[in-house]
Write a structure and sequence with these properties.
The chain is an alpha+beta fold and about 220 residues long. It folds into three domains: about 90 residues, Ribosomal Protein L25, Chain P (Beta Barrel), CATH 2.40.240; about 80 residues, Ribosomal protein L25, C-terminal domain (RNA Polymerase Alpha Subunit, Chain A, domain 2), CATH 2.170.120; about 40 residues. The protein contains four helices and 14 strands. The chain has a six-stranded mixed barrel. β4 and β5 form a beta hairpin.
């Protein structure tokens, strides 16, 4: 995966005063890591937003601080956005060690068509959209494909165990967990439930009639 580049500068504005940085189009951030002292930095909001759209939290970023020629290879962590405007507020950058494994959560991307939906009238339920994995930084992926062409009938599903695992990646989730499945439309389920309830009511009515008949027979014998 190709690295994206990002320029930053050391930050002297700390605490509540960082709100003034945001007004100037600068986003406060922190660079840290196992062999990296925690360093407050600031990044141009527009440039940072563009980089995060490309890299998210699963792709490596070459982060340059001030005029340093050698970049810090980092992953974006704890990306904070305003809940109303979605504008960036703060980002942590974790400096990775290329010989040590990291954990990320790539997206699970649906590919293909599900026959049970296309021809059987089923409804596709995408239960799991991301999955936690562990790998060396060089093996990072931003997504894992989920082939749904095997979903041929209602109640078919794809579990984590069915996923194609890229080389060098270990999935850290329960292999039996369902990623995507096909279920009957709600209207069909309601019709089936109504039919089952009606059948049950008929069986109860028949049973009551049989019991009533037995009571009458016993009463006739006593007379």
């Amino acid at each position: 995966m190709e690295h994206v580049k990002l320029q930053s500068s050391r930050r002297t504005v700390l605490g509540k005063q960082v709100k003034h940085l945001r007004r100037e189009g600068l986003i406060p951030a922190v660079l840290f890591g196992a062999k990296q002292e925690s360093t407050p930095i600031q990044v141009q909001e527009r440039e940072l937003d563009s980089v995060l759209r490309q890299a998210g939290s699963t792709a490596l970023i070459e982060l340059f601080v001030d005029k340093e020629r050698r970049p810090h290879v980092v992953l974006a962590r704890d990306i904070q956005r305003d809940i109303l405007t979605s504008r960036l507020r703060h980002v942590d950058f974790y400096q990775v060690q290329l010989d040590r494994k990291v954990r990320t959560s790539p997206a699970l991307e649906l590919v293909g068509e599900a026959p049970a939906v296309q021809y059987g009238g089923g409804v596709l339920v995408h239960t799991l959209t991301h999955i936690e994995v562990e790998c060396l930084p060089a093996d990072l992926v931003d997504s894992i494909p989920v082939d749904i062409s095997s979903l041929e009938t209602l109640n078919d599903s794809v579990t984590i165990a069915d996923l194609p695992v890229p080389p060098g990646i270990t999935i850290l989730a329960d292999p039996t967990e369902v990623v995507v499945s096909v279920v009957a439309p709600r209207a069909t389920i309601e019709e089936e439930e109504a039919a089952a309830a009606e059948l049950e009511a008929e069986e109860v009515e028949e049973l009551e009639e049989e019991e009533e008949g037995e009571v009458k027979e016993e009463a006739g014998e006593e007379e």
